[in-house]
Amino acid sequence: MTQTSFDDTRSAPAAAEALDRAHAAAVDWLTRMPERGIPATTGVAETQSRLGLELPTDPEPPGDVIDALIRAVEPGLMASQSPRFFGWVMGGTLPASLAADWLVSAWDQNAGMREVTTGVVAAEDLAGRWLCELLGLDPACDVGFTTGATMANLTGLAAARTRVLRDAGWDADERGLAGGPPIRFLAGAERHGSVDLAARLLGLGAAELIDADDQGRIRPDLLAEALAGRSGPTILALQAGNVHSGAFDPFAECVAVAHDAGAWVHVDGAFGLWAGASPRSRHLMRGAEDADSWATDAHKTLNVPYDCGVAIVRDRVSLRQAMGTHASYLTATTTADADPHERVPEMSRRARGVPVWAALRSLGTSGVAALMDRLTRSAQLLADGVTAVPGLQVLNDVVFTQVCVAASTDEATRALGELLRADGVAFASSSEWHGRAVLRFSVSNAGTDDEAVAESLAALRRAAERIGEQ
Ligand SMILES: *Cc1c(COP(=O)(O)O)cnc(C)c1O
């Protein structure tokens, strides 16, 4: 056997061979998805020994590397694109967005600079404008494509920090935070942990928490009380889509009272912002369009592959001041439009907005609405079916994609989750909500239909019948 040279690893035929093998494996992965058991069947250590623990000394043909990767890793993959997968909040992949994502890697464009990689910047800019239109937000907002909603939250809150301090006469981007006016950072008691993380990274500290109601919605009366008679730099984080209940904060009341107090309002809508894309669920977002910044994910509800989050900010100047670098070695932009890198934390990055463009082009507004309606209908069907299982109850008002299930005791609920996941047909996450163990279903996959719901309910009934037997 002839030895592979360094040049052999990077030749055009070698690239084609590796891509062909990846293509075949990807099609096989997706085609057999509906019949796959959901949990990974090998652990990390076993997968690593299959991959080979030793760093190789010599080059190997790329196609062989891809074969080895597929063989070793596939048993360790979780079938999270299964139509019966309801874990965490995870979407699948729409064909157009997946294929576009492959091209993004093949094209390998650095999407940070408008005048240089014009092709992908054009598609991303359109995707950003279409997103705003679809979600009922001002299309003149600045849109940045981030790795996920965590970084989109960070981006929105960074713009907020810049703005509220500037309004108080303090340039934080020049002078830092120390010595400046303190910022009051308010959030609902059931905000997502990524909001806390973003606040920590930004030096905002722990949020002052406003109590929530039984569905996890921030209480506007308590918010009004907290804001009454106070002034100074203030940021409020609201939520569109509580991970347990799917509930939406009462935006109209909260935004009004916060704006009266001069606060910046940010909305974490990682999956919930998409309610705005269908006439049937749009009412949940009422008033959210008046906020100042929004974070969402394309890799959850829109079913774009990881990683793809979206930061949307109305005040472009504050966003660009917070995120821009204005480094002299970069080509100065000649247009009035920002370089994409001025809207997100990263400078160099993949053109992750292109798969969003492809998803929106593929679905159109009616297709996105149909996707949202399918998800909410499936969640409702699932909840109705759960209620019919003796001993199980649904704890939340099912308004969007989330269904929180409990058995008669915490112990039984935990066992229910373990039995369901071990059965392999359907998957939901064990969690805790309002001091109780829960089994949480998040309907986020475009492939989940009535049949998948029925099969999942059958699996849940099997698990419920076996509680106590183990
Ligand atoms: C998932 C989620 C996030 C974090 O998003 P990532 O894409 O994981 O960074 C933030 N908020 C809510 C409500 C979420 O569901």
From TrEMBL:
<protein>
    <submittedName>
        <fullName>Aminotransferase class V-fold PLP-dependent enzyme</fullName>
    </submittedName>
</protein>
<keyword id="KW-0808">Transferase</keyword>
<keyword id="KW-0456">Lyase</keyword>
<keyword id="KW-0032">Aminotransferase</keyword>
<keyword id="KW-0663">Pyridoxal phosphate</keyword>
<dbReference type="InterPro" id="IPR015421">
    <property type="entry name" value="PyrdxlP-dep_Trfase_major"/>
</dbReference>
<keyword id="KW-0210">Decarboxylase</keyword>
<comment type="similarity">
    <text>Belongs to the group II decarboxylase family.</text>
</comment>
<dbReference type="InterPro" id="IPR015424">
    <property type="entry name" value="PyrdxlP-dep_Trfase"/>
</dbReference>
<dbReference type="Pfam" id="PF00282">
    <property type="entry name" value="Pyridoxal_deC"/>
</dbReference>
<dbReference type="GO" id="GO:0008483">
    <property type="term" value="F:transaminase activity"/>
</dbReference>
<dbReference type="InterPro" id="IPR010977">
    <property type="entry name" value="Aromatic_deC"/>
</dbReference>
<dbReference type="InterPro" id="IPR002129">
    <property type="entry name" value="PyrdxlP-dep_de-COase"/>
</dbReference>
<dbReference type="InterPro" id="IPR015422">
    <property type="entry name" value="PyrdxlP-dep_Trfase_small"/>
</dbReference>
